[in-house]
Structures are given as structure tokens and as C-alpha cells.
Specification:
The structure is a homodimer of 143-residue chains. With 143 residues, the first copy, chain A, is an alpha+beta fold. Chain A folds into 2 domains: 80 residues, Arc Repressor Mutant, subunit A (Orthogonal Bundle); 45 residues, 2-Layer Sandwich (Dna Ligase, domain 1). Helices cover 41% and strands 21% of the residues of chain A. Chain A contains 5 helices and 5 strands, in the order H-H-H-H-E-E-E-E-H-E. Chain A has a 3-stranded mixed beta sheet with strand order 4-3-5. A two-stranded antiparallel sheet of chain A has the order 1-2. In chain A, helix 2 packs across helix 3. The two termini of chain A are 30 Å apart. Strand 5 of chain A pairs antiparallel with strand 5 of chain B. Bound molecules: manganese (II) ion (2 copies) and zinc ion (ZN) (2 copies). The structure holds a DNA duplex (30 and 30 nucleotides).
DNA sequence: AAGTTAGTTTGTAATATTTACAATTTAGAA
DNA sequence: TTCTAAATTGTAAATATTACAAACTAACTT
């Protein structure tokens, strides 16, 4: 889906130098849909680039977040996770399995932005509305 | 607002022993509206109970979460925060100041639960809808 | 009221995650 | 090809949290 060309262009457009580490990290983050942690990314990218330093993972992710190429996401658990999808979206999250999936819903977004256009919150101006839908992935109902 | 009697009853009803540490932690968490971290709680509660161990803060908070007396909340920053309000509510959050405030809105909740009653998400059953309203507290507009 | 004990707290050490920093390497401009 | 700012690496430090065993205590029993 996301070609190496696109990846390279994204990094380049952000004014960053193209390095194997950066390309591979971003590529891996695009491929993994599970909102991985720095540690998970380190494990995956290490297989492609042996000798990779954990520091590079943290540096790279921070830089990408700073440049808006990726986003941080958090769950109820303790570790930071990362998301290659920067377009506005929400998350389905199961606290038991700590599994998190993307949820896109333009109709819902319309309803919410209409609502908050009418209803002003005193002392606070809303710039982004993020939903976390808590629940269960029906991993049983697999007949 | 929240009397010591109430605090004690809450802890007791959860099947836990009443200790000065637990009473003071829960009392402090009720008083502080800023969704404090374990560290902030340790600092505050230490003033009342000198000799308090950080471990006790972590133990106590974990126990309270387990028993449903308090909730964990997360921001985009790295540290876990805690919330004495267990009733359903949402959060206003400013990423710049890392400030987080409670937001109650039954009308919105109605709209959302109506929406998700109609619109089923395949493979996922929603049990709780949490909004994080990103934005700015208008800390300038103080004339 | 004293005795008993399971539950709680404490202190220390370990783990996990993340950051700081200086030396080395490298991408990409000149 | 040369040069340099930027990036990566390795190590050590900081931060946040957890594990664990000894000491203590709330509250039940007598
Ligand atoms: Mn941390
Ligand atoms: Mn941690
Ligand atoms: Zn996502
Ligand atoms: Zn809250």
C-alpha cells in the first residue's frame, strides 16, 4: 500500500535526511496495524537492520512525532504507542487484551463537530475530538 | 465536600482495611482536581503522613483501581494519572500545558449512546465511550 | 481488653522505559 | 570528491514502576 517511494518522500518533505533507519521505522510502523510500542518496533526493525540502537528508535519516533509524520497514542497500560495514521480517526480499545484498532467514522465526526459548534465550552476551545471506544473484540464469536 | 466518613465508608465497602495511608490518599485524590500522578500524590500525602513510602502510593492506587474506587487516566505525556471521579465523564486536555479537566455532558452522552445503539461496529461491542477534547484553556482571555 | 492473624506498609533492590551525552558515522550539499 | 550539519551509536543516567521480604497494624476472635 505505502511504497518505499512514498515513505522516502514523506521523510524528505519533512526536511529530514533519508536514512535506512528512518525509512525502515516508518515503513514498519505503516505495516504494523497494532499501534506498536518503541520496544516492539525495535525488535521488528532490528531484524532488518541488525546493530540498530534502541536510542535511534526513540530519537526517530520523537522526530517523526515532532514533524507530524506519526502520532503518539496511549492506552490504559503504561507504555507509549505509535500510530502511522495521522488522519483524524478514533480508536477501539479492549482493556483486557490491550488491543487497539483504528475506527474511522465521518458521519460521527459530523455529528460531533456540529454539536460542539453549537455548544461552546466556557474557558476552553476545542481543536480536536478523540473518541476511545472501550469494549471487547468479539474474539469468541468466531464460528 | 467528601467527608472523611464517606472516604472511610468507600474503602470499607470495597472490603479493604482502613489505614491512615489509604484514607489520606483517597482524600487527597478527591481534593486535587488536576488528575495527579503517583509522584504528585506522594509529595502531598507525605506532608500529612511523613515517612510514607512511595511503594505504598503505588500499591494503594493499584488496589483502589482494582476495586473501582478510582480510575486511571492518560494524557499524551508519559506518566499515569489518577482520577477520583468514577462516574462516567470526559476530559478536556491541552497538550501544551498538559492540563486536564473533567467534562460532564449528559446531552452528549445521550447522542453518542443513541448513535452507537443504531450503528453496530462489526467485531466489537462498545461498553464505554470516552471523549478526549483536545484544545486550549483560554488562559489568556482573563480580563 | 488482650491475642491472633491476614492484610498492609515499608525499605531496598530490581526492572522497565526513556533520556542525556559524547564519539563516530553518514547523507547530501557544494 | 570534499565538507559539514545531521544522524546514529553505545554507554550511562534518569525516571517510573514493580518485586519481595521483614516489620507492623487493623480488626476479628476470644
Ligand atoms: Mn516512563
Ligand atoms: Mn514505566
Ligand atoms: Zn490509530
Ligand atoms: Zn476526570
Amino acid at each position: 500500500m505505502e511504497s518505499t517511494q512514498d515513505i522516502v518522500k514523506k521523510i524528505s518533505d519533512a526536511g529530514l535526511k533519508i536514512t535506512p533507519q528512518r525509512v525502515t521505522v516508518l515503513q514498519m510502523l505503516c505495516k504494523l496495524k497494532n499501534h506498536p510500542t518503541a520496544d516492539e518496533l525495535f525488535a521488528e526493525v532490528s531484524q532488518i537492520l541488525p546493530g540498530l540502537s534502541p536510542t535511534t528508535i526513540y530519537n526517530t519516533l520523537d522526530t517523526f512525532v515532532e514533524k507530524g509524520l506519526i502520532k503518539r497514542v496511549k492506552t490504559d497500560a503504561d507504555v507509549m504507542r505509535y500510530d502511522a495514521i495521522t488522519d483524524h480517526h478514533h480508536h477501539l480499545y479492549c482493556a483486557v487484551s490491550d488491543r487497539m484498532e483504528d475506527y474511522f467514522d465521518p458521519e460521527l465526526d459530523r455529528i460531533l463537530s456540529d454539536y460542539f459548534n453549537k455548544k461552546q465550552i466556557s474557558g476552553f476551545s476545542v481543536s480536536d475530538i478523540r473518541l476511545q471506544l472501550m469494549g471487547d473484540f468479539n474474539e469468541n464469536n468466531k464460528n
